[in-house]
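lol ok so funny story. i was supposed to be doing the assay writeup but got distracted and ended up predicting the structure for this chain instead. priorities right. anyway since i did it might as well share w the group, maybe its usefull for someone
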Amino acid sequence: MISFSTSAKALCLMLVVGLAGVTNAAAQSDQSSCPPPRTIYTFTDSSSIQALPGAPAPFCRFANVNGGQQVDLFLGAFSAASPIVQANIDVLTTLLPLQVGKAVHLTRAGPADRGWQANVSVEKYESVEVPVGRLNCFVLLWTEPSGQGRWERRWWYCPSLEFVAKYSAKFEVVGATGRALTSSPTSWELAGIRVP
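and the output, tada:
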């Protein structure tokens, strides 16, 4: 039996991720795949999640390493717990295989004629530098009106990782002067990966 040290495993993972990152973006399968169970992703906001088995397709299951809360995610970004995602999962899966320019519109009825809507698009495919290295990723853009403003969220989904390497969120409001006021309440990058 061959035994690898932790540093040898890390080197192997870096080589696999690097080689997988140079593959053609057009060569995506029709289904997203899930990372191997017990894979742990650590982020620059000090959070960590671990991949688990058992999610219904097309979701992948993860658990917060610190608190144990479980979440099922589509493409590492869209939570099955979100009512608008639940109501539109068939629409979201039409983004597969991922290809720049694909876009979908999500809607969900609400009480008293109040509803929700969002647009999701594959904005671009780019190489991004994060603490774990340079990765080739699809940028998934979620835009959603909210009150007098608009949310703009981006996830950098990397097929070679079967997960997201970066996330940013921005809320924009047009003020009384007509000038756009923005804030970035949340952002993080992938800081580490541990594969079982």
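The first strand starts at residue 40 and ends at 43. The helical segments are 6-21, 83-87, 89-92.
back to the writeup now i swear
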